[in-house]
Amino acid sequence: MGKGGEQGGDSGEPAAQIRFYTWEEIQKHNLRTDKWLVIERKVYNITKWANRHPGGHRVISHCAGEDATDAFQAFHINPTLVQKFLKPLLIGELAPGEPSQDRDKNSQLVEDFRTLRKTAEDMNLFSASPLFFSLYLGHIIAMEVLAWLMVSYFGTGWITTLILACILTTSQAQAGWLQHDFGHLSVFKKSSWNHILHKFVIGHLKGASANWWNHRHFQHHAKPNIFQKDPDVNMLHVFVLGDTQPVEYGKKKLKYLPYNHQHEYFFLTGILLAFLIPCCHTLSNPNIFMLFFHFGHGWILPGFSGHPFPEVILFLESHWFVWVTQMNHIPMEIDSDKHRDWLSSQMAATCNVEQSFFNDWFTGHLNFQIEHHLFPTMPRHNFWKVKPLVKSLCAKYGVQYEEKPLGKAFVDIVG
Fold it and tell me: Is the pTM of this model over 0.70?
């Protein structure tokens, strides 16, 4: 039971006395119409404010009834600034006798992880290298320019077309990794600059929506591989994932597709994407940015007007994207929410791929998926520096740190 006078709430008018709450009471407020969460032992009522949350209402709602301290730290590059939005939502604090973590989480592990994060901050690992990202954007633009020059000088013969397909597929894949950096606010210290560049790269170079990406991707990071919370594993009626979902489908006798053959029709999904995505972009979204890819790589590129060339590139790049993004998650645990601490929940759902210059470039440093999920706002060129600290912490508490060769990671997807 809470004690004392009410403080704050959605009215933003604090009372004179602080009210204290137990975890048992807080955990009851995890409904669509009633949401509380805890950050650094302070209790906030986010029920009405969730729909105004810049990251989307779903990602913050997934933390309702829980300690959201580590998630809050992970997603915001300036937590002090964000605190001003929390003040009107404050309704009290955890009772003095209550632990800082809910559901019997290992408090020492949680504290050690927070110490690790502070160490990474002291090592300046959350500061980006302007040279790295300038060169990265430069090599993408260089490939785009090279493609235009090749068409201008050599025309649209078969050899030229094959070479162009390789160049533009590569530029599209690399632009995908770059928009990911801006989307996670890991390049600039100001959120606004990250948002502007994110919209430019994903809108102009990729032909997709920044808002759509934010809405889905932050949910994935908050609750990776969790049914009903991670959109990346909610592929119902197309694939059944993990150990739990196939059993549930079997009991309910849901047979939308021959799931025993999903490892075979998985390879055909790129063809479907290649033809559906352009149609969806053109017909359902008025954002002119989303048409840029199809104008630039098909309708305006000399000699390719009315040609299926953009769909060929999209087909090739979609496979590159899917294989890389799924190699770190699909082979891992996929289940309902077990309400683990931040470190344990991310480690259960992610694995790494061995480091090499090619692997780093080919995957956009998503071969360091563990470090990326633990510290999503950290610039990717610093993942290798924090990796030894993460491995040491995992070894201390017996948390599995899985790392594998690139080839085995791809084979495990099919498995």
Answer: yes
